[in-house]
Amino acid sequence: MIPTVYSDPRGVQQKNYEYAEYRTLDAEVIRADAVECFGAVLARCWIDKSLIGDMIEDPHYCLLQQGIVLPKFLDIDVEIHKETNRIQLQVYEIKGNQIEKICSLRLSMLASS
């Protein structure tokens, strides 16, 4: 297999010898189905607590490692919800000098009998 070379959001050139599928999200896709876009990420953070730290430190890079590419005009804020101690994502679209909130997500557990 011929390695492909790509630049990650930090500008580091990397060779990728394994096939990886990346999904580029835009504001319209996120507005249409935010849960589909970020649901798996939230679930992984619930299971793997070390991933939460990675998401807080550098969400764009962490999402890239999970196959999700956010363009530069989309920003993501990651914080821990105080009441549930679970990760919460807020996605914003940057339009010139304006910032518009697209969505806010957190994973909740619901048990029933």
Roughly what fraction of the amino acids lie in strands? 25-35%
Could you describe the largest sheet, including whether it forms a barrel? Answer: 3 strands, antiparallel
Helical residue percent?
Answer: 25-40%
Strand order of the largest sheet: 5-6-7
Average the pLDDT over all residues and give the rounded result. Answer: 81
Uncertain segments are 1-5
Radius of gyration from CA coordinates: 15 Å
First-last Cα distance: 51 Å
Query: How many strand elements?
Result: 7
Helix run count: 4
Task: Estimate the global geometry from the Cα principal axes.
Answer: globular
Structural class estimated from helices and strands = alpha+beta
Write down the secondary-structure element order. EEEHHHHEEEE
Question: What does this 3D model show about the protein?
Answer:
- It is a single chain.
- The protein has 113 residues and is an alpha+beta fold.
- Helices cover 32% and strands 33% of the residues.
- The chain has four helices and seven strands.
- A hairpin with a 2-residue loop joins strand 6 (87-95) and strand 7.
- Helix 3 crosses helix 4.
- The longest helix is centred in the middle third of the chain and has 14 residues, at 34-47.
Give the secondary structure arrangement, pairings included.
Blueprint: E1 4-7, E2 13-16, E3 23-24, H1 27-32, H2 34-47, H3 49-57, H4 59-65, E4 68-69, E5 74-80, E6 87-95, E7 98-106
Parallel strand pairs: 3-4
Antiparallel strand pairs: 1-2, 5-6, 6-7
Helix pairs in contact: 2-3, 3-4
